[in-house]
Amino acid sequence: MLAIFNNPSTHWLRWLFTKWKLELKYRKQKLKLEYMVEINNCTFNNYNTIYKYSRLRDSSFGDFSYAARNCQIYNTKVGKFTCIGPNVNTGMGAHPSAEFVSSHPLFYSTLGQSSGMVIVDKNLFDEFPETTIGNDVWIGNNVTIKYGINIGHGAIIGSGAVVTKDVEPYSIVGGVPAKIIKYRFSQDEIEFLLAFKWWDKDLEWLKANKEKFQNIGEFMAQNPLK
User: Which residues pair with 145 in a beta bridge?
Assistant: First the structure.
């Protein structure tokens, strides 16, 4: 019986049904789901694209954000205008590393990860703390972001990085574990961008002001804070 539900044809039909259902639901927002993506309990906004073979669960995407192919995005809130490169993993489940005698979920979880076996009456450990990725973030390929991490607005995560702690707004980080390499802008420029919040402007404003995005100095001069 299990073979009926676990074969390539069944997986393909499940993907096709999910794609049809969600693209219909979000048709006004122009959602695009590519081949064999897996979506479970996620929400989308305007102009999101999820590329081939990616898996999303318990996550949300802001306007214009996308995930490239082969990503695993779990328990993650993604802001607007965020670019997630291929093979990125975020929000994977946590295991206790202190106090608990064992890190195995049999001793703290009711989810039955080991063939459905459960021996506890309630969940005793937060396995899935939410990961938050801000607006205008660029995450390179092959990045792993630890559960419960907060990625600040405008940050850039270099390819291959393993992010184990919060990332400051408009910082560029890389390495294993990821560390700050430099900041994208001066402190005054960062404070301006965080206060201005251009990502909350509507599409008409973005179209009318697209030329101003090519230079931070000109952008600030032509968009003074009120």
Answer: 90, 163
CB 153 within 8 A of CB 147: no
Domain boundaries along the sequence of the chain = 2-93+128-184, 195-226
Alpha-carbon gap, residue 54 to 72, rounded angstroms = 6
CATH 3.30.9.10 fits 2-93+128-184, yes or no: no
Whether residue 113 contacts residue 93, with contact meaning beta carbons closer than 8 Å, is answered with: no
The tens digit of pLDDT for each residue in 204-226 reads: 999 999 999 999 999 999 988 87
Confidence of residue 105 (pLDDT cuts 50, 70, 90): confident
Tokens encoding 11? 């997986």
Which residues form the catalytic set? 95
Residues 110/44/131/107 CA torsion (nearest 10 deg): 10
Q: What is the mean pLDDT of the chain?
A: 91
pLDDT-derived band at 113, boundaries 50, 70, 90:
confident
Site of tokens 């993993």: 89
What tokens appear for 28 in the block? 């006004």
Instruction: Over range 169-197, report the average pLDDT.
Output: 97
- Is the overall model pTM greater than 0.85, yes or no? yes
Residue 33: which H helix or E strand, with range? Answer: strand 32-33
